[in-house]
Amino acid sequence: xxxxxxxxxxxxxxxxxxxxxxxxxxxxxxxxxxxxxxxxxxxxxxxxxxxxxxxxxxxxxxxxxxxxxxxxxxxxxxxxxxxxxxxxxxxxxxxxxxxxxxxxxxxxxxxxxxxxxxxxxxxxxxxxxxxxxxxxxxxxxxxxxxxxxxxxxxxxxxxxxxxxxxxxxxxxxxxxxxxxxxxxxxxxxxxxxxxxxxxxxxxxxxxxxxxxxxxxxxxxxxxxxxxxxxxxxxxxxxxxxxxxxxxxxxxxxxxxxxxxxxxxxxxxxxxxxxxxxxxxxxxxxxxxxxxxxxxxxxxxxxxxxxxxxxxxxxxxxxxxxxxxxxxxxxxxxxxxxxxxxxxxxxxxxxxxxxxxxxxxxxxxxxxxxxxxxxxxxxxxxxxxxxxxxxxxxxxxxxxxxxxxxxxxxxxxxxxxxxxxxxxxxxxxxxxxxxxxxxxxxxxxxxxxxxxxxxxxxxxxxxxxxxxxxxxxxxxxx
Length: 477
Prior knowledge:
Blueprint: H1 3-13, E1 23-25, E2 38-47, E3 53-60, E4 66-74, E5 77-85, H2 104-150, H3 160-190, H4 199-230, H5 238-258, H6 263-279, H7 283-289, H8 296-306, H9 318-323, H10 330-357, E6 361-366, E7 373-376, H11 379-396, H12 405-419, E8 439-440, E9 448-449
Antiparallel strand pairs: 1-2, 2-3, 3-4, 4-5, 6-7, 6-8, 7-9
């Protein structure tokens, strides 16, 4: 063991002094020194009971007696003990513990005191920060109060977008202030301080809300109306337009009542409300022109009825429609659009039925001991088949079926053909030339069929009797 390490060990164990020389001054019992104040230290190494090697310095004392300071290093932990051989030689080693760990309680207590002191200092520091933050927060609230009150002098509709951006910025600041108020109140509870009342902030938010509604609605309306009038008619979503108009009217009507004591702000609200009321009669016209069922045949009918050539061109805008005085023919446009909507519903229903059959899989299986085959379908296909037959039959009685009459009849015949499932006759069928494969078709029941590679495939709607090869099927009578 090096002298420096032994010196540190001796200091930790409570020895009074230690010299860098291999001589160790010790005090005998009663505080007196022996005749020779220094004794030679001899390095020794002996195995302990656990097989560890104890290394330390043995002190050679008069009369053959010896005291050893042994150091055991095990699992990175230091253990030391003092031994005295021979009688009448009790050593007075001030503060020396039997185990080095015996000194840790005092160290831990010292550490606790240090941490407690640090905690007191940190608590005082954070308390000062809390007080400073709250003072700054109060100043911020006073500034926001002035800003909110200042909105009462804004009455220029031409600056609606600029003012709207300002109220949105103030809205964000007020929201942040509400979160900060909650934070500061929580800190006050931690420090056991009186809870600050921030009701003033809540009143400020309530006072600010009418200004927010007024200027955001005014800005949105100016932007929407500009877009609806000048953008291509094909880009207008008629359903969303109607929602926006209704919501804007409700909000601005509320603002008119809230600003009854502020004539200047109420005037702005009345102006915007008048513009919305002026636009509202155009909603049916836009809905008619933007009906998704409008096809070329409908535009031709409409043009003939109103004697104005109307076509959905890319550069057609709603402002151009007003220049063409289409608002004078709203009734005719609405009637044509209503017919287009009913026909569109039939078209969508047909597409939906065909799409539902595209996921139904059928298997071709041999029928008993015959050379014929049948189609086997899952159970849910039977219910789907019945539902579609009823729906298709109801379409066939619709007064709006004319553009799709041929398609409806063809689809109904396929469904009825699929519904038929008589027993197959062996004399009418020949076996297929190769192993049959699963087919995605619209049949929900078993259907016997004759297979021939030489016959042309039947033409069906998407998903109906569509197989991996060109097959021809016949219902068995």
